[in-house]
Amino acid sequence: MLVHVSVDHDRVTECVPKIGPIGARRTALAGVVGKWPNANTRKLLEHLVIQDDFYGIRGDALQALAEKWPDETTRELLAQRAVQDDHGSPRCAALQALAEKWPDETTRELLAQRAVQDDHEPPRCAALRALAEKWSDETTRDLLAQRAVRDKDACPRRAAFQALAEKWPDETTLKVLEVRAAKDESAWVKQKAERLAKELKEKLQA
Length: 206
Description:
By secondary structure, this protein is mainly alpha-helical. It is built from eleven helices and two strands.
């Protein structure tokens, strides 16, 4: 079964398969977006972000909408899918696109919420990284310091203290790293914190 995109006056039809190898589907979708960034393609993307069964297609469609149609309609759809999509990957895509295209207080509030409340690790990591990149102030720093300790999963804890090391390479961050290197329950996180602490300590002593 196929989804058909009618292309303006030429009545050319580009088909994006609804089933089949995912790589082929993603390539076909990218081709449609690149060649025909028109209203019909936009309607297709808006359909796919909600209805497609594969999370990769939903994420690709969200990214394409943000890139080609960065307006309020797209923004509202991204904000919705950042919370409502049932897979973490499209939620990550939505959060990243919002931070890139609409770096304002509304987006910041959503990111801060998802950094704590999302059920899965990757969106929490994505939200923390976006906050550090776009809003590197004391409020973000405090949140990162909290999540470096309180998040229940290893990836967000690591993402939080890694962002601290990159954006705030000072004695306070060094203490956070040393504590995680000593006390974190994940060996993977401990190793990363130990390495970052060593690098930061050498930098501060130079």
